[in-house]
C-alpha cells in the first residue's frame, strides 16, 4: 500500500501542487475511467465516514447516555469544523489527537500487553482449528485500513514537494502497521476466540468489542484508556478521511476556497454519510468490507495505471519515481484484483468466515 501511494504521488509530479486525484486521472486515463474512479473514491470515503460516524455515536452513547443518533450529529457538528476551516487546522488537531492516542495507547495497550496469555493468543485450546483460510476474507478490511490515497494530493500540496510527501507516506504506513500489530496481539492475547462471537453478531462494531474487553480486563483504568484510544483513533480517522474527501469534492465541483464555497463542500462531504448513519446503521466491519472492495480501484489499480502512463510522458522517467519498475506495477494491479475478488467471494459465502 506504500508503493501504490508512491505511484499515485509519482503521477502528480507533472502537475501543480493544487492538482487533485480527479484532475490527474481525467487527464492521463480519460473521462470514462475518471468517472468510474470518482464513484469509487466517493463511495469509499463516504462509507468510511459513515462507519466512523456510526461507531462514534455508539461509543458516545455508552459514555454519556445520549441517544446514538444525537451523539452522531454532535460528533459531526463539532469535529467536521476542523476540515471546514483548513488543512492546517486538521494538521494541528491531528498532532493533538496523535499525542493523546500515543499516551492512551501506551497506557492501555501496555496494560493489555503485560497480561497477554500466549495460550489465548495462539488458541492452544483449539489445536485443530486453522485460521489461515480466513486471511482471504480479511484482505479487503486490511486494505481499507491503509486506504489513505485520496489524501495524497493534500499531503503533496501541504509539503510542497514529492520527496517530503514520500517520507510522510512511508512513515504513516509503517507507524500504522506497527500499531495495528501491537493492537492485534494485545486483543487476541486477552480475549479468547469464542468471546468474539457477540462482537461478530453485532457487525464488528467497536463498542461491542469494548464491552467484551471489559469482561477480561481487571483494571478499570486500563479499560478507560482503551476506550479513550479507540475514540481518538476513530476521531483522527474521521478527520483525515474527511479532509481527503473534502479536497476531492472541492476539486470535482470546483468550489471556491471561500467561506461560502467551503460550506457547500462541507455539506456534500459530511451530510450524506451522516444521514445514512442515522437512517441505516449497521456493522462497522461490514461497512469497511464494502469500502475495501471498492478501494482496490483507486488504492491499487488506478495508481498503478497512472504511474505506467506517467512514465510515457516527457520527463516521466525523471524526478520522483516509485520503485520496482513495470513488474511492481503489475504486482499492485494483481493484488487489487485479488482483494476485490476475495470480498465478493466472501459475500457469496464461498470463503470461510470466522463466527467465534
From TrEMBL:
Subcellular location: Cell inner membrane
Record's keyword annotation contains Transmembrane: yes
Keywords (A to Z) from UniProt: Amino-acid transport, Cell inner membrane, Cell membrane, Membrane, Transmembrane, Transmembrane helix, Transport
Record's bilayer topology term: Multi-pass membrane protein
One GO biological process term: amino acid transmembrane transport
Positions of transmembrane segments: 39-60, 66-84, 96-116, 131-148, 168-188, 228-253, 265-284, 290-308, 329-355
Signal sequence segment: none
Gene3D superfamilies cross-referenced by the UniProt entry: Amino acid/polyamine transporter I
Pfam families: Trp_Tyr_perm (PF03222)
GO MF annotation list: aromatic amino acid transmembrane transporter activity
One Gene Ontology cellular component annotation held by this UniProt entry: plasma membrane
NCBIfam families: araaP (TIGR00837)
Functional summary from the UniProt entry: Involved in transporting aromatic amino acids across the cytoplasmic membrane.
Protein family: Belongs to the amino acid/polyamine transporter 2 family. Mtr/TnaB/TyrP permease subfamily.
Protein name (database record): Aromatic amino acid permease
Species annotation: Grimontia hollisae CIP 101886
Amino acid at each position: 500500500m506504500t508503493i501504490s501511494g508512491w505511484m499515485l504521488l509519482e503521477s502528480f509530479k507533472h502537475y501543480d501542487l493544487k492538482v487533485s486525484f480527479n484532475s490527474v486521472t481525467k487527464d492521463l486515463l480519460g473521462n470514462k475511467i475518471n468517472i468510474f474512479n470518482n464513484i469509487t473514491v466517493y463511495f469509499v470515503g463516504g462509507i468510511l465516514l459513515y462507519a466512523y460516524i456510526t461507531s462514534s455515536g455508539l461509543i458516545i452513547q455508552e459514555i454519556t447516555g445520549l441517544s446514538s443518533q444525537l451523539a452522531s450529529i454532535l460528533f459531526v457538528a463539532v469535529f467536521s469544523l476542523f476540515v471546514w476551516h483548513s488543512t492546517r487546522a486538521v494538521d494541528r488537531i491531528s498532532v493533538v489527537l496523535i499525542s493523546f492516542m500515543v499516551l492512551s495507547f501506551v497506557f492501555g495497550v501496555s496494560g493489555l500487553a503485560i497480561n497477554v496469555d500466549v495460550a489465548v493468543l495462539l488458541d492452544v485450546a483449539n489445536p485443530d482449528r486453522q485460521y489461515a483460510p480466513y486471511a482471504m476474507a480479511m484482505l479487503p478490511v486490511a486494505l481499507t485500513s491503509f486506504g489513505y490515497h485520496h489524501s495524497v494530493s493534500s499531503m503533496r500540496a501541504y509539503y510542497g514537494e514529492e520527496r517530503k510527501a514520500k517520507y510522510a507516506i512511508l512513515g504513516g504506513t509503517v507507524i500504522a502497521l506497527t500499531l495495528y500489530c501491537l493492537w492485534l496481539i494485545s486483543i487476541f492475547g486477552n480475549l479468547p476466540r469464542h468471546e468474539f462471537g457477540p462482537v461478530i453478531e453485532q457487525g464488528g462494531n467497536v463498542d461491542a468489542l469494548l464491552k467484551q474487553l471489559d469482561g477480561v480486563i481487571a483494571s478499570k483504568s486500563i479499560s478507560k484508556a482503551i476506550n479513550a484510544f479507540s475514540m481518538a483513533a476513530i476521531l483522527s480517522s474521521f478527520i483525515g478521511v474527511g479532509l481527503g474527501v473534502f479536497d476531492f469534492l472541492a476539486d470535482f465541483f470546483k468550489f471556491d476556497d471561500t467561506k461560502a464555497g467551503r460550506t457547500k463542500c462541507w455539506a456534500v462531504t459530511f451530510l450524506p454519510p451522516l444521514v445514512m448513519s442515522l437512517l441505516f446503521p449497521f456493522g462497522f466491519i461490514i461497512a469497511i468490507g464494502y469500502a475495501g472492495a471498492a478501494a482496490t480501484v483507486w488504492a491499487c489499480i488506478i495508481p498503478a495505471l497512472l504511474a505506467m502512463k506517467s512514465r510515457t510522458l516527457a520527463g516521466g522517467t525523471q524526478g520522483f519515481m516509485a520503485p520496482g519498475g513495470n513488474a511492481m506495477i503489475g504486482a499492485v494491479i494483481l493484488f487489487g484484483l485479488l482483494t476485490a475478488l476475495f470480498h465478493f467471494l466472501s459475500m457469496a459465502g464461498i470463503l470461510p468466515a470466522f463466527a467465534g
